Amino acid sequence: MHQREQRGSFLLRNVRMFDPVQKVDQTGDILVMDGRVRAFGVVEELPPSVPVIEGNRGLLVPGFVDVHAHFREPGFEYKETIETGSRAAVSGGFTSVCVMANTNPVNDHPGVTREMIRKANEVGLCRIFPIGAVSIGLKGETLSEMVSLSEAGCVAFSDDGLPVRTAKLMRRALEYSIMTGLPVIDHCEDRDLSDGGVMNEGWVSTTLGLKGIPNASEDVVIARDIEVLRLTGGHLHIAHLSTEGGVRLVRQAKKDGLPVTAETCPHYFSLTDECVRHHHTNAKMNPPLRQEADRKAVIEGLADGTIDMIATDHAPHASHEKEREFDQAPFGIIGLETAFSLGYGLVERGDLSLERLICLMSNNPAHHFSLPVGEIRVGGLADFALLDLSRRQTVQNDFFRSKSRNSPFLGSVIGGEVQKTFMDGRLVFDRMQDKEVER
Amino acid sequence: MNLPPPIHALEKKHLLSISDLSVPEIEGIFQTAESFLDLSSRSVRKVPSLRGRIIVNLFYEASTRTRTSFEIAGKRLSADVINITTTQSSVVKGESLLDTVRTIEALGADGIVIRHSSSGVPQWISSQVNCHVINAGDGLREHPTQALLDLFTIQKRKKRLSGLTVAIVGDVLHSRVARSNIAAMQMMGMKVRVVGPPTLIPREAKQWGIDVFHSLRDGLEQVDVIMLLRLQLERQASGFIPSIEEYSRLFGLSPEKLSWAAPDAIVLHPGPVNRGIEIQGEEMFSERSAVLDQVHHGVAVRMAILYLLMAGGRPEEENRAPA
Amino acid sequence: MSPQGGLRVLMDSGQIGRTIRRMAHEILEHNQGTKNLCLVGILQGGAILSQRIGAVIESIEGIAPPMGTLDITLYRDDLAIRAAPPFLRESNIPFSIDDSRIVLVDDVLYTGRTVRCALDFLMDLGRPSSVQLAVLIDRGHRELPIRADIVGKSIPTSRQEKVRVLLEENNESVTLVRMSS
Hints:
The complex is a heterotrimer. Chain A is of the alpha/beta class. Chain A is 32% helix and 22% strand. Chain A folds into two domains: 10-60 and 380-438, Urease, subunit C, domain 1; 64-368, TIM Barrel (Alpha-Beta Barrel). In chain A, helix 4 (167-177) links the parallel strand 9 (156-158) and strand 10 (184-186). In chain B, helix 2 links the parallel strand 1 (54-59) and strand 2 (80-85). Chain C is α/β, with parallel strands linked by helices. Chain C contains three helices and eight strands, in the order E-H-E-H-E-E-H-E-E-E-E. In chain C, the strands form two sheets. Chain C has a five-stranded parallel β-sheet, with helices on both faces. In chain C, strands 1-8-7 form a three-stranded antiparallel β-sheet. The model of chain C has no long low-confidence stretch (mean pLDDT 89). Classes of the chains: A alpha/beta, B alpha/beta, C alpha/beta. The interface between B and C is medium-sized, with 33 and 27 residues.
């Protein structure tokens, strides 16, 4: 692939610029020069040879930031590559994606980190921030070289896919990570308690005869991590929070002033385990879809600030892996393309304000992961998503840019559409052109 | 002339779950099974109803009883029955279940009888093929033909189903037999209770609308039917029960414990029985045990199901004019 | 299909009674008494007829021959081309048919396919020393090489007609119904 040109310039006309943290909400034009915002509002000077793009009164927000995705490269390129993952990301309005370490080889070595970044630059569609492993080989035994990983470009540490195995390892990880200033992310699950479960434990699992994963499986490890954090300091980030109890624990920890942040994923506030009855293996992920009380608690947590951000846990799997016996199919669903619309569903139903949703998808993840993005301000990086909130569409196979199609939302009607995505001052996704290319 | 009331035809292609059936359909299956019962006393124990049809027993889990029962049922209806078990099929070569099933269909199977350790597999493959699919047990989910033969056996013994109280004893958590039976028994108006240690009863069991007992004495009080479940011995190793001995002492049935139930209570067990664990001293109450009836009735019930599902027009011939 | 052009009564109650008595006599004559004689009615039409014949034999000989019924559904050759499998009725042969002289009884003999089913069924039950066929009405149009040994009445018909036999108490008749297709 050819090296993409760096740092574009353009004038985007006639958009509603919206950044709840910078307190920006105004309609007008925005001028981007060499990848940074030069001016917005009423733009008077128009340097020659700067392309003009018509915004059609769309909503321009800071490009979304996903702190939790699996791009599968290196090692599992048949599921996803950095290139296909990037395409999926920008079509969903994401301009920054943190990619998990459970690749092959595992991202537990600066060499792997650097190679991921090199590949992402070559693709040049969205910013990719690798997450380093907490332990070598995700084995839960030896700490990875966190400082070296951080120097190579990692922005957080996680054994995701697996929990940080022991309280002792979590203690060491949080303590050691203080030197890097980066968060330690935990996939909170007591795998003994999960005991081979494949979906949420409850009435649905009982009637379907599928082994259940109880809420307690998640809650006990959240509680463990919070207590370890009380001991150590550092920055603990709870991945894909899905339970009522987990929301309660994080809320209390924040009240206690602990440095903890949390994310949830669109499926946990959109679906419940009832979905397993119909959607088969595309409704299988870990943590599993929970019950209505959990879904409500997660929404409440998003609204009241307990949950800081929406991440996707984009986890592509090939169809031959998913089209099989439920208990033998892998966990995980893709999420980058549908995340905004599902979040916007909460806005449409009155559960969240639009400001809060943009905070959760752009400003907050950038802020808590110390990424230099997620804002619209003069001098800031020109990463934006241009949205048309009036559009509705049925999710079909061709809606996805990911290499995989494992989404429980196939066939759903969702509202709010990403029209254009800009990264570093360049147009990296345009739904109109994209459709023509697809044809 | 004294004709029995017309039975209800099975207006469906597959038998996947008890909840697929209506009460009249279950009664129709029993009535049809009744006519197949005396077949075993004939000199030629075969009828030609499914001549030329191919039934594949696709068993991904070891099961001598169910497979043999289906095999005999199919053969007595003159179908060609082919057994495929995991050890001899291309499963070991890594062929996916879906490929296996599609291949079997392409080879001309009219019906697939499937047993699989993963819950939901029969439902899933029935959406992928055109032939009949019959669930012979999937994971922890359902074993509808076992439930039907259990109810048929109870009805033969007790002359009724409605109003009877049944205690299902043992590892309900891991039992597809229990799940199918609870559904079928409730449809037929029976009162169901489950008895076992809390580790082997699903937390949500009461949502079935059944009573839960952790004491065998309380659980057996006044019951008309005792259904013992097989205890997989590996449950002890995985920590669901501390020891087989204590389980047997608390939940194994003995002549003395049988006296806690109604005086004419009968005893069922889906087999194979762990003698000395689920049942001790069975010879002392053999006249109350219906275990061999269950085996005998199993063939007739499965014949009835195969006949009612498959003896009609082949799916692609449904629109052909009658001769 | 519906009856059209009316019904034609072929036999009334009196004629039926006389015919059944003659058939009983013929059966006894063929078999030289009731030794090893069994009557097997083919459901549904043959069941009542065989009881009627049996009653006459009992009044003549003083002993009733063993009687049974056969439901030939499971032996039908048209199962696979019917939409749904037909209901089963209970076959009931409460005696061993080995070495017995079986008289198969049916009300109407038409294509012969039903009799073929019944013969196959009987052979699956055992080995009778002989099988004879007694029918009240032989209407022709055989599709298989089968003939009746004892015939109540032979009636030429067309395929568009239907022979309806009623043997209920106080309601006995044989009528020919013309069907419009």
